[in-house]
């Protein structure tokens, strides 16, 4: 079993993204999930998962229990060790320095040498307390609870107190700050944050050998993130300025021989001027579509009413692919169903007071 540490506030969304890298993901406490198996290279490319570890075991969120758990565990490892403790959102009130000292002494008693700078094995000790939200799925169509993590339910779930111990197996590469929209060669207001862009690319299934399309690619934010985890990417946009800008950004981040920071070869890219409701692509030519629908007030909408544009793009997406992830400032769930999609999951992500982003996962 593995332990997944999520990074942000929205565990349900993080859980759906982490299923790109792990199987049988189950949330066990705020910020924490367990999984049956994982692909370390994919963990490196996750946005909302920070780390994955080989699970040693779970107990309640106290240092004494964590100590007892480690004393009882079998440890099939050689080399130097370090303990790194965290208290998720400061929820358990456990002293992480005390925890590191106590667990470190258990390891020393069992004959391990400590190397805090560069250990051969890092033991993660994660403490978390709080309510585990229920996985409501009222917006989803088929009731497949294994797939559907969230629609904000407003209900408060069971209260849990957890300490999980695990040997660090893989960490995600935290280089998103270097791709802030304003730091890219081409910038326009309304560009998607690279963290969300990476997450939606992962949920769409971006990986080497797969092709991801953004039919309204704007500055190419989603395509850059999908390309950096190895997918081949295709973009269209109605505006010539955006096409030129997306090309500049994609060339900057993907036209390089060295592997991407996540360790995979960078994907190939193609961007053309085109109408997202009439794609120049064969049926089924694409593995998955991701798009960030215009927000009416922000992006310039070429030739269509917003609802017609989104409906048309959803229908065309269904023709060329059998999976899609749609980001927008409203739900568009009915339009997605009308276009022949099944709603796998839906999320509302509050960006700031006047902007909520909706994410629909469609298959
Ligand atoms: C919200 S922006 C996408 C932003 C993008 N995710 C980014 O990070 O830059 C929506 C884009 O849709 C494009 N667009 C509007 N109508 C279109 C249409 N009919 N076909 C294709 N693109 C269209 C706009 O030019 C705009 O670039």
From TrEMBL:
The protein's GO terms of the molecular function aspect are: tRNA (guanine(10)-N2)-dimethyltransferase activity; tRNA binding
Quaternary state and partners of this protein?
A: Monomer.
Its localization reads:
Cytoplasm
The family annotation for this protein states: Belongs to the methyltransferase superfamily. Trm-G10 family.
Asked if Nucleus is a keyword of the record, the answer is no
Its source organism is Natronosalvus rutilus
Q: Which GO terms describe its cellular component?
A: cytoplasm
Task: Kindly provide the name given to this protein in its UniProt entry.
Answer: tRNA (guanine(10)-N(2))-dimethyltransferase
What PANTHER family does its record include? Answer: N2-METHYLGUANOSINE TRNA METHYLTRANSFERASE (PTHR14911:SF21), THUMP DOMAIN-CONTAINING (PTHR14911)
Question: Domain Ribosomal RNA large subunit methyltransferase K/L-like methyltransferase, which positions?
Answer: 184-357
Q: Can you supply a Gene Ontology BP term from the record?
A: tRNA methylation
